[in-house]
Design a protein that fits this description.
Helix content: under 10%
Number of helices: 1
Distance between the termini: 42 Å
Oligomer: single chain
Strand content: over 45%
Structural class: mainly beta
CATH class: Mainly Beta
CATH architecture: Beta Barrel
Strand order of the largest sheet: 1-3-4-5-6-7-8-9
Number of strands: 9
Number of domains: 1
């Protein structure tokens, strides 16, 4: 049985981490729909694995992940996430997090799998929900789709307000 690794979790949570960093919504409260593309990077030490019994990757283990978000080649913010391993067979994780930005913060959450689930749910397409925000990002909602390798990930964000 394959093991759940911290690199796996970083790749899975990447979309949720990045959702929050670049979604500039109008202060006027106008309804908007936007598609954004950006990247996140993780440096050595940006993730921590908390191994509960039994020893080794198993449901109940936790991963904390930090990531730097880049937009147009520039650093655009930092996000923090907490992930819980749920299912060893399909390598499913539930993650929630927050982006901390000068203009406010954005929260996100979702689940993702590294293997195709029953019913044909594609493990290569991780989709997360933007659950809210503060400051400039108040009222944020939408989805994010992730692709990448866990060290440098690309995200396509469909953002609504």
């Amino acid at each position: 049985m394959p093991s759940i690794t911290s690199r796996t979790v970083i790749a899975v949570v990447g979309a949720g981490l990045a959702v929050a960093a670049v979604s500039a919504l109008p202060a006027s409260g106008q309804s908007t729909a936007r598609t954004l593309t950006f990247t996140t990077t993780q440096a050595k030490g940006d993730e921590q694995y908390i191994d509960l019994k039994p020893k080794g990757p198993s449901p109940g283990d936790r991963y904390t992940v930090s990531s730097t978000i880049h937009l147009g080649g520039r650093k655009a913010g930092r996000v923090e996430a907490d992930c819980l391993a749920l299912d060893r067979r399909y390598e499913v994780f539930s993650c929630s997090g927050v982006a901390i930005l000068p203009e406010g913060s954005i929260t996100f959450q979702g689940a993702s799998a590294n293997k195709t689930l029953p019913g044909g749910v594609n493990a290569k397409k991780s989709i997360y929900a933007v659950t809210g925000g503060t400051g400039t990002y108040a009222g944020a909602g939408g989805t994010a789709t992730r692709s990448g390798n866990g060290k440098s990930d690309k995200f396509v964000i469909d953002l609504t307000q």
